[in-house]
Amino acid sequence: MEFDAVVLAGGGSTRFGGVDKALLVLDGVSLLDRVLRATEAAASTVVVGPVRSACREVGWTVEEPPAGGPVAGLAAGLAYGVAPVVVVVSCDLPWITADDVKRLVDGLGEHDGFGLRDTSGQEQQLATAYRRTALAAAIAQVGDPRDKSVRRTLATLDLAWTEPARAGDDVDTWADLDD
C-alpha cells in the first residue's frame, strides 16, 4: 500500500540542553537519518522542522507559528503528499527500521491507525501509520492545533498497536541512547 511519511523534527530538545536531537549521532548515523532510512519506501516524505542535512531528498516545512507542538507539526505535514496512508514518526526513534514501517502500513487493516508500542508497553502516537482522512479529521476537530495534546487530539480514532518492541523506544534523555 502506498504511503507518505511525516517526520516530526521541530522540538526544542530541552531535556538535551537545547542540543538538536535530530542531529544526535548513534552508531555513525544521525537520529534524523535513521528515521529517513526507515521511511525510504514512502511515496513522499516531509520533515517538519528546520532544514538540515539529510541522507536523502525530502520536503521541508515548519508549523505555523513555529514551536506550536506536535499536533501543529502534524497539521503542517499533512499538507504534503496525497497517499491514503500517512506514516507519522518523530525523529527520535533510532531503532525503527524499514521493516517496522512496512509492518505498520500492512497492519492498518480497517483501523484508523496502527502504531508501535515501546518496550514498556507505552503506545506511540508518533510512530504510527494513519489513514490520511481520519488523521486530518481529528486534527481539524481541535481547531487551532497549536499546543494541543496529541493523545486528546487522536482519542476518537480507532487505533491498534503492536506488541512492545524496541522500534517504538524514543530518545528523550541522554540515558535513552544507551544500548
UniProtKB/TrEMBL annotation:
Protein name: Molybdopterin-guanine dinucleotide biosynthesis protein A
Organism of provenance: Kribbella aluminosa
Domain of life: Bacteria
Annotated ranges, domain MobA-like NTP transferase: 5-155
Keywords, comma-separated and alphabetical: Transferase
Signal peptide residues on this chain, from the entry's feature table: none
InterPro entries noted in UniProt: MobA-like_NTP_Trfase (IPR025877), Nucleotide-diphossugar_trans (IPR029044)
